[in-house]
Amino acid sequence: MTQPTLIRRGRDGMGPLPDPLPTALALAASGVPVLPLRRGKVPFGNCPTCAGNTCGGRPNMKTPGPCDCPGVCHAWAAATTDPAVIGSPPWAAAWRRAVCVAYHPGAAGLTVVDLDDAEAIAWAHTVLPATRTVATTRGEHWIYRGVMTSHNAVRPGVDVKSSMSYARYLGPGTGHLADLPDAVRALAVRQPSPVRLAPPAGTLPAGSGAGECPHRTPAYLERGIAMAEQRISEAHSAIHATVYRTFLAVLSTHGRCGCLTDTHVTRLFTAAQTKGETVRHCTDAWTNARTTLGL
Asked: Are 148 and 162 in contact (CB under 8 A)?
């Protein structure tokens, strides 16, 4: 897409914007999908009709834009460049209550590295190439040209906001936009937990029947793990619940015979972490699934 004038339009300033609507319209005209943020710098909640995403929202929530509801629903997925939507009565009411403007970086072809403190900023100066920089309340946004998956807490004080996420617009910033470097993409590759993820083979109760466990058939076990990885990777909502249910399904099939190894479980944890789950969330989901099954 044509590089938006996100960096050239809009006004400098920290904190709440006195009149966010003109800034939103200017950004939208430059191709940057926008949405209002309310107090707490969070999106407006879904209307009663859309609560719990019962309306279905945007298909798979992969692209910006509202559902059929005229309100400001679905957070980042409601971001739009349509001035008719931005100025419509439901949105106008939201802008009057808004404290600032947000945008969907991924839909604008951008990635924002959100640096929350001085230590994170110092790390960025050491590791990342210089790019357009915008001051925030506590740190800086480093903005790159390119899109990737969004991840929180990729390291202390550092979040990556791009696709399926939103960032506050805090002014044009300084410096020239650089292409998204591999060093930022690498931040999304989570390292597997150093904690032992599964008991060694043979420590769980063996299944009934004599002879070698049929789950040790390489093709059978590999297919089960691959299907579990795919189920997690294709989830677009309710990630916590999906990870737990997938762990539960794997353990219910393979958890009692001892054929699961650390390698298998690490693959499942890695799939979950690429969707934004933390090691703690993965460990909790695994433990809860084992507890549910009495393992």
From this structure: yes
The percentage of the chain sitting over the pLDDT mark of 90, rounded to a whole number, equals 36
Q: Which residue has the tokens 């931040």?
A: 187
Is 68 exposed, middle or buried, given 0-12, 13-18 or 19+ CB atoms closer than 10 A?
exposed
- Cα 215 versus chain centre, distance: 34
Please state, in angstroms and as integers, the Cα–Cα distance from residue 193 to each residue in 162, 202, 270, 289, following that order. Answer: 25, 22, 9, 18
Q: Please list, in sequence order, all residues whose beta carbon lies within 8 angstroms of the beta carbon of residue 135, skipping any fewer than 6 positions away.
A: 14, 170, 171, 173
User: For residue 57, what pLDDT band results from cuts at 50, 70 and 90?
Assistant: low
- Tell me: the pLDDT tens digits for 66-101? 677 788 888 888 899 999 999 999 899 899 999 999
Please provide residue 180's backbone torsions phi and psi, each rounded to the nearest 5 degrees: -60, 120
3 state SS of 55: coil
The pTM of the full predicted model, rounded to 2 decimals, is 0.61
pLDDT 10s digits, 241-256: 888 888 888 888 777 7
CB 35 within 8 A of CB 26: no
Residues 6+ apart with CB under 8 A from 153: 159, 278
Q: Going along 46-195, which residue ranges are E strands? A: 100-103, 110-115, 132-135, 140-145, 151-155, 158-161, 167-168, 178-179
Q: Is 70 exceeded by the pLDDT of residue 121?
A: yes
What single letter denotes the amino acid at residue 87? G
Cα–Cα distance, 269 to 246 (Å, whole number): 11
A 10 A CB-CB count for 199 gives 16
Q: Let me know how long the chain is.
A: 295
- How many CB atoms lie under 10 A from the CB of residue 235? 18
**Distance separating alpha carbons of residues 143 and 160, to the nearest angstrom:** 10
